[in-house]
Amino acid sequence: MVRWALAAGALAALEARAQDLASGKDVYGPCAACHGANAEGGKGGEYPRLAGLPVDYIIEQLKGFQQRRRVNLPMYPYTEPRELSERDMKDVAAYLHAIELPLKPPELPETASALEKLEAAQKVLVVPKVAGDVDKGKTTFNRRCAGCHGRSGQGKIDFPRLTGQYPIYLQRQFEKMKSGERPHEGESSMTDVLKRVKPEELTDVLAWLTSIQTQAPDAEPDAGSP
Question: Is residue 59 part of a domain?
């Protein structure tokens, strides 16, 4: 009887999880126009990649838009309380976190149609590399960034992953945080960190981050599993 109860409980949890993800996919629908059908981002980094970001981080950013703590006029209509409830935030965050983008196209059968090949290619994570001193970038990252974002930039519970994100988007956010346009909340301030890092050092960090796109990440705690 106990075994049956445990199995039934596990099945109920799986069903609830599936419902949450399905709901999150529905909530994400309008977002795909800018962020891509697979949350891969758009326009070469004009719109960031959302796939795989930590759940807590996504929720916090959505609340930031909703409460106008984070300035982004196009996001405001989509994050109004009547459009996006707290339940919706949790569901869409879980859905986005669960999306895994491959680093190379899958092997398809010779009979695959052109459409199937195109859809498979669209799911591949492609981030342009930045020219710079990779070794210096790794050193700077380990000294300044790894404590929050992880040794390989994979992110932690409430800190976003940086590997796999478009460098043009990261550069823009660096500038906004450094100027104070984008507030950074938490124990450590990105604004203070960025003010101590030279522009060329940031370029080297981006060079290192984009150089390890196809490498297996270091073993780190799960970045925000729901």
Answer: yes
What is the Cα gyration radius of the chain?
19
3-state secondary structure of 159: strand
Query: Mind listing the pLDDT tens digit for each residue in 194-207?
Result: 888 899 999 999 99
- Sign of CA pseudo-dihedral 117, 123, 128, 129: negative
Q: Left if phi > 0, otherwise alpha if psi is -120 to 50, otherwise beta: which for 43?
A: left
CATH number for the domain including 76? 1.10.760.10
User: Measured between alpha carbons, how far is residue 123 from residues 20, 106, 136 in Å?
Assistant: 22, 10, 31
159: which strand partners? 156
Instruction: Measure the CA–CA gap between 52 and 95, rounded to whole angstroms.
Output: 9
**110-145 pLDDT tens trace:** 899 999 888 887 777 778 899 999 999 999 999 999
For the chain, the domain total comes to 2
Q: What pTM, to 2 d.p., does this model score?
A: 0.80
Does residue 72 share a domain with residue 141?
Answer: no
Query: Which structural domain, as residue segments, surrounds residue 50?
Result: 13-102
